[in-house]
Known about the structure:
The chain is an alpha/beta fold. Helix content is 36%, strand content 16%. It has twelve helices and 15 strands. Helix 8 (239-252) links the parallel strand 7 and strand 8. Helix 4 (96-108) runs parallel beside helix 9, helix 7 runs parallel beside helix 8 (239-252) and helix 9 packs across helix 12 (423-439).
Amino acid sequence: MRNLPELITPLPGPKAQAIIARDHAAVSGSYTRCYPLVAERGEGATVIDVDGNRFLDCNAGIAVVATGHCHPRIVQAIEQQARKLIHMSGTDFYYENMVTLAEKLSVLAPMPGPHRTYFGNSGTEAIEAAMKIARYHSGRDKFIAFLGGFHGRTMGSLSLTASKYTQRARFSPLVPGVTHIPYAYCYRCPYHQTPDTCTVECVDILEAQLFKTILPADEVAAIVLEPMQGEGGYVVPPPKFFAELQRVAEKHGILLIADEVQCGMGRTGRMWASQHFDFKPDILAIAKGISSGLPLSATVARADVMDWKPGAHASTFGGNPVAVAAALTTIELLEQELIENARQIGEHLMARLKEWPKRFPQVGDVRGLGLMIGIEIVKNQTTREPDQRRRNALIDAAFHSGILILGAGENTIRLSPPLTFTLEQADFVASTLEQLLARQP
């Protein structure tokens, strides 16, 4: 399979059109599809649709296939495990590879140990478990989360999510006791500061106002955040944001929950985004890239924090042995080469993309870590007014050029390819997007 796009039919092709028509009749209308891709197979960073068109995948199945599509070592691990044991339920029985993965995650965790790990199937389950652990351990019931954050769509995690109103509309009442505050979104600072001049007002608001008026600090179980926001626009905070969060949390006995569902597992050029900022959470939520496409999540906490009793929480499928086998091989590949590749290719891409605001008036900001890069599209660089129409048009034009990208936040393009991405592929994406930006009205 070649490594660059090749389109042989108009998009969508005839087979894709037929499948999409069937989908519209049979599948939930709640799904969001940005363009009519009907995938049939994949390899590395390449996806082939049902009509034989070849695309370059710059979203990695929403940051899930960290090792690329159908990596041969992942496929081998899945096949070998499936021949031995597909399911037994770690809730009620023991099997070794689940223990091995928990031990490995403890070694990798960004905070001091010892640790214990709870296994689920998805990012939202990891967050639900983190919320329950925080309440159980602390005896407190309230949470602080951030505007722009995305933590999932089940009722607890949805109560933390503050990314798009459509994700919350008509689902109230949600879990009570969540207070949202501004994130450290420096390009759009709500306090009109710069990283050099701010006093981290987005954290200072807690002690300066909220703890004095509506939110007793001794009732807050945890502060929940993505160390780098994903759905909110691929936003990278300054290091002092984390230092101030840790100071406030320690002073008031509040737990810190790091949602690394999208930004973890090597995506930022470190195993965890938290490591870029020396951030040491009490609880870590992991999913997406952990098992290269199989459903698996992990909630890792300090052992003294995960002190709940048998029966307090469980999952029939969480820690499925086939998914765990894929995760163990995923971690091997990340440690051997792919985290370093994400760092190197990410730095190469960023060096090129950082010049775009000077070259293209519709590009307001470029930011990112590793292979998690956001490009913010604006109507005017001075006013910074978001331009969702141009952003969406660029995503569609990229699709018709054979590149699969997605949006994030109101007006940002996200680049989150598999961590196997090559220099050739990165340069092809950059050159193609430059041509499309130059042609945009």
